[in-house]
Structure formats: C-alpha cells, structure tokens
C-alpha cells in the first residue's frame, strides 16, 4: 500500500541554515557491500545495518499506514528526534533537544517504539542514541542527517540537493553507528514529511523505505497533554503510524500525553509495535 500523499507536518527545531559541522569520526573501515535480501548469516559488527532492495522502478517506496491481512489492532508510535546543523550552539546553551523522561516512560509502560533520529541528534547525544539503539524495545530509523528538506517548499527548511540525498541518509546511518547503536532499521522519514518524485528516485540507492504517518499527534509546542492525547486517540486505527516527537524543548507535553494514550489504547485492544514489525504485517 503505497500512499503518495503529502501531509502537513508538525515541524520542530526547523531553524535556518548554517554550516554543517565537520564530519564525525571516520568509520573504521569502508562499508561492506550492502546486504541484499539473499538469505544467509547476518554480518557481525556495527556496520551491518540492514538495507532493503531498491523499490520497483528505482523508486523509494512510501507507506503511511499498514494493515495486515488479519486487521490486527496494532499501532506504531514513532518519535522524531529532530536536530538541525545550526542547533548545536543552542544545545550548548542548555536547550534540550533530547527527552530522556519520554524514553523512560516508554520503558516503564513497556511500549515498543521507533525513533526516527537525525544523525545530528545522535552526534549531540551519543550516549542516549546508543542506549536507545541497544535496547530491544526500541529501534532507530533514519530522519536524515540534519533535518533539511528533500523537496521544496518545506516549511522554510534548507534543501538537500537531489544528488546529495542518498549520501545525507547514509551520513545519518554513520552517525548512529559511531554512537554505538545497533538496532537500526532501514526506514526513513522525510523531514517535514516533504517529498516528491525526484526525491523518491534520488533516494533509491539508499535502499530505505519511507514511512510517513496517518496520525499527527500535534505535540509540537503543545502545552496541553490532554489535547495531544485526544488527537492521537481519535486518529488511531488498526495499522496506524503515529508521529510524535522526542525533543523536549519543542514538544514538552508529549511524555505526559503518553501516560494517557498508552493505557487507553490498550484498553481498546491495541498492541504497540515497532515500524519494522508493522511492515512485516503486510
Ligand atoms: Zn522532523
């Protein structure tokens, strides 16, 4: 079920441009050939991030909701860890783009979840990226290196040129690896949800599947956790992908909203799954 609908997106931390920081530590070795769908033992080591076969026609597939044949009541909560290249100085001044309380609440409530992380975030918070990316409850998916747009216009974000798009995604994967994350999955979320045909073709070499969402949590800059909770609860259907954020300064109500969302959805019979499980339901 590929859905090519451009959705409005709640944007966080979408500052202007700025020079990209110097590249992170060099990887220890050149990346091995990308694994294919061929069966065989998994490659050991942190470089063995999974990738997918390119989409049909050299085009990146896109999903926003996925229902299995069973119609099981599953829902994927996803949390975007946005960070742009120019937000480093703000982080240095104390602004928190992380949200450890949110991650702790997910653990306490035993909720599986997917974090769509920017590479820049993993560089700013490597310990947290490693903790998230080594906890079997979570998986890290790719939200670009620095939250630049892959199509324009896109909420005023600077744009990644098409020839650089696949490398931008790879750079984010490199950041996760450098942080020590291992639970990394080949799913990608376009910053701002903005994409077009050019981007889908340009990204094909990255061998990712784009995952949007069908439920907007509306947590960006929200002050009222109940309003966020009600928006999520009113939107969820079997197979839904919910977009929320784990950047505390820009999504301060999310953790409290979850404390209501999780038990209510469970009472309705829903089970929380990671995006990778949702994709397998197909
Ligand atoms: Zn984002």
Task: Characterise the protein shown here.
It contains nine helices and nine strands. The protein has a single domain (56-281), classed as Alpha-Beta Barrel (TIM Barrel), CATH 3.20.20.370. With 282 residues, the chain is α/β, with parallel strands linked by helices. The radius of gyration is 17 Å and the shape is globular. The protein has helices at residues 88-92, 100-108, 119-124, 126-133, 165-179, 197-202, 225-235, 254-267, 275-280; strands at 62-63, 74-81, 113-117, 138-142, 184-188, 209-211, 215-216, 240-245, 271-272. Strands 1, 2, 3, 4, 5, 6, 7, 8 and 9 form a nine-stranded parallel sheet that branches. The structure holds zinc ion. Zinc ion binds at residues 80, 82, 143, 147, 191.
What attributes characterize this protein structure?
TIM Barrel; 9-stranded parallel sheet; 282 residues; globular
Please indicate the count of domains.
1
Q: What is the CATH architecture assignment?
A: Alpha-Beta Barrel
Our measurement of the CA-to-CA distance between the termini, rounded to an integer number of angstroms, reads: 9 Å
* Weakly predicted, low-confidence segments: 1-48
Nearest-integer average pLDDT: 84
CATH class identity: Alpha Beta
